[in-house]
Input
Amino acid sequence: MRGIVAVKASEEKTSAERAGQIEAARERILTAVSDYWALTAEQPGERRRIPYAGRVYDREELVNLVDSALEFWLTGGRYTREFEQALAEYLDLPFCAFVNSGSSANLLAFMALTDPELGERAIRRGDEVITPACAFPTTVSPIVQFGAVPVFVDIAIPSYNLDVRQLEDALSPRTKAVIAAHTLGNPFDLKAVRSFCDRHGLWLVEDNCDALGAGFVLDGTLRKTGTVGHIGTSSFYPPHHITTGEGGAVYTADPLLSQIIRSLRDWGRACACPPGVDNLCGRRFDGQYGTLPRGYDHKYTYSRFGYNLKATDLQAAIGVAQLKKLPDFVEARNRNYQTLRAGLSHLEDRLEFSVCHPDARPSWFGFPITCRVPGGRDRIVRSLEAAGVQTRMLFAGNLIRHPCFDGMRASGTGFRVVSDLPETERAVSDTFWLGVYPGLTAGELSYMLEQTEKAVLRL
Ligand SMILES: Cc1ncc(COP(=O)(O)O)c(C=O)c1O
Output
């Protein structure tokens, strides 16, 4: 007996020693990573070109990433749980699912609304979804892919958001949802859109990919964009407010929608166990599903035709560090926006600047400009690009004019358009935007102002 106790004690000592050695090795590696960051971090004034956006990170992101790599869990694990929870808390919502891109987030948001569990409110093939024509393609792709009908409304310049005055015209007996983005971080009129949706029993999906951290005052309460509609989506691709490399999130306050979103994300399965966990509910082998034999493994039971759109713990590890910086990022973006706005105000006779709804609290993704001088936009953009200042168009401009719409345009089927979209067309020819991301230095912003003024005065 005494022998067994002695062996056990020595085993415990060995495993404690090993754990201590592992922890010490981990500490050495992470300290070296932190030192590496200090040596390699970009120095101000080092770059030749001013990007419109980019990753802003420090040692914490790098240390978390390597920490996760050492753990080698790879798929969703502790960092994923932490990131989902922290993002849900930030948004003041109960449910948030981390996914592998903003496009995947939009796909899940849309497909969740087609789920038969939603009964009469489920979107079916041939049903209509109202959305602006000036958009990012993957806000609209899931609608077309599923066989629902996008109904395009115009945008309104200078908000660059969907023109809420066209919503009633867009409505038909088959309308089931409104899906729209908060353009470049400027919240659309959530009061008008939400009350339109409520009046007509429609779903509202907020594509919040370019607006994380923005808000809107509704009934006296400041609400984060992405949380007023039934589902909100985010992208964490590097130019966005925070990054995980590739990555995105879908969030909702609705427990049923959350369950559908997770199921669709995770192969369409019925079971809610996270990766690596079995039998969380304790009834793994007790149920009756479909026409399967009673007790068939719930973990391998599929309630939906799903996908695998999960992201990895490596990405979530970066997200955990990025999320802590988000409030500062939003402040810096808004400050940079104001610097550009003030510095260009004397050019207002030639340039039109954006305007926000009085109840909107933007979290600027970019600084949109519409040139009032015909043909002037392209000359300004070429001049800025030649001077090393990166510019961007307002995403797809008019989505319907893109090659992906060739077939539908030719046949005139599969979509509807409300009005001739004059403002969307104006955006196609006259609008561009400049960066406001937190990585811009005061010197770079001055240079951007100087070069923009130079180009505009040459028109
Ligand atoms: C409004 C909007 N929605 C969706 C997306 C897609 O996000 P991702 O690139 O992560 O797929 C983007 C991308 O920039 C976007 O701007």
Q: What stands out?
A: The longest helix spans residues 2-40. The chain has two domains: 66-315, 326-457. The longest strand covers residues 175-181.
